UniProtKB/TrEMBL annotation:
Entry superkingdom: Bacteria
Species lineage: Bacteria, Bacillati, Bacillota, Bacilli, Bacillales
Organism of origin: Oceanobacillus polygoni
Keyword field: Hydrolase
Aminoacyl-tRNA synthetase is among the record's keywords: no
InterPro entries per record: Metallo-B-lactamas, RibonucZ/Hydroxyglut_hydro, UPF0173, UPF0173_UPF0282_UlaG_hydrolase
Stated name of the protein: UPF0173 metal-dependent hydrolase J2Z64_001590
Family of this protein: Belongs to the UPF0173 family.
Amino acid sequence: MKVSYHGHSVVQVVTESHTILIDPFISGNEACDLDANTVKADVILLTHGHNDHVGDTFEIAKRNDALVVAPNELAVYLGTKGLNTHPMHIGGAREFDFGKVKFTQAFHGSSYTEEDGTVIYGGMPAGILLTIEEKTIYHVGDTALFTDLKMYGEMNSIDVAFIPIGDNFTMGPEDALVAADWINAKVSVPVHYNTFPVIEQDAKGWAAQVKTGDGRALNIGDVIEL
């Protein structure tokens, strides 16, 4: 299984049978090396409804006939647009043919803004625990620091955690170091930084300070093999 980072909060997971995209914000994401017009996806997982996370979900899902797994209200909205969706909610888990998905808490917001300015409520924001072939990936989503992250670390053997460090909209570097310690992943990867001036951070400097497991700031397109 190959897990790769593609800027902002975009993560790609490639197994022998499936390609999974998490929060595919590609168009408008200058750091992203993927092409929304050609990228393959069998499954799209969404943490919440903000445009910089839903990203190119509409186009990618329709072109690939991909399954979109998202928090309930967001999944219902995407379903009205003709996408094949599966709704879930915080604390719920489900076994799919590609692996097990469990949605965790995240303290943030969730809404999708349409081109005409209409704001659509996206339900509760979430993190995602994705378990495939006995390996667990934790995409923490956009969130503040909260103590249940310690519980998630204790309840799960997490191989790779993607943790936001950008500050302003999510936890910043200092809080993210605490989160990395609590989550206790074998590898902690910083995300949600440098996309916009307001979230510029030193990712390598952050990774060097991670005390629990291996802190690793991935270059765009870098792959972790599990």
